[in-house]
What we know:
It contains twelve helices and eight strands. The chain has helices spanning 3-8, 48-56, 81-94, 108-119, 141-147, 151-166, 181-186, 194-203, 211-218, 237-246, 262-265, 267-280, and strands at 12-15, 20-26, 33-37, 60-64, 101-106, 124-130, 224-229, 251-255. β3, α2 (48-56) and β4 form a beta-alpha-beta unit.
Amino acid sequence: MSILKEMEKHGAYAQLSDGKVRYELGGPETGEKVVLIHGLIGHMHVWDYQFSYLVEKGFRVLRFDLYGRGFSDRVKGEHGSELFMSQLKDLLSFVKFDTAFHLIGLSMGGAISTRYTSHHPELVKSLFLVDCYGIPTPNDPGIRVVQARGIGEALIGTFGGQILKRAPIKGVFDKKKHKGFAKWFSAPMAISGSKRALLSTLRNFMLENHVPHYERINQLELPKMILWGREDKVLPFHYGEQIHALVPSARFEVFEKCGHVPQFEEPEKFNELTFSFINQHS
Length: 282
């Protein structure tokens, strides 16, 4: 069975204000609520280990595909913070998450989580940011190249498929151990409209200034934790130190010999840390 066919068997669909969203909700209705948000190229399956673990521990867990990723709609228009904030707000309402929950965000999902917490601190019990994006990098060669109208479209149309197949392996430290990761991770990007959504996200969300939201959550009393893989080649460790400098009130944890996706590379260690953190603040 193909990777996409296997992935497609999971989850349900919600018709929200901007489009259709695939999500999965598990665990007892009375359990502490946890929301998991993936990153730029990912999908809800990057949380496979955590979803099943937390459900078994009795939590009420929500994971979903961001617009333009996984099996959610490839919506038209700008893929910026307004779109992703609307998606999260609509989905939380749809699944009736109307009381405070624990929020965990990976990479770009960390910036989305931070913005949401900045706007709705009363609804977030704890915030866990994993190798999170937040400080714009307009001079990054990849982003600079795609900024130009026409050039970005031509490049993503010609080379986008190759880039999406190869780039994800940069996210893991032990490439031999996880040699199938890139193919699995980027599989849904083969769906029509994915490259357009990625290009729009690079031009919009990735260039927005998220720093004020990090500074805002630093002032909040809610529990916060930041985790970084020492060998992250996507958002290097010094970038993580810069993020922590914006939120010095957050606990800062480091996984050695680990890259950009610690929840995938060190699932047992990650799960223990997650359980300890959210259980302490439940």
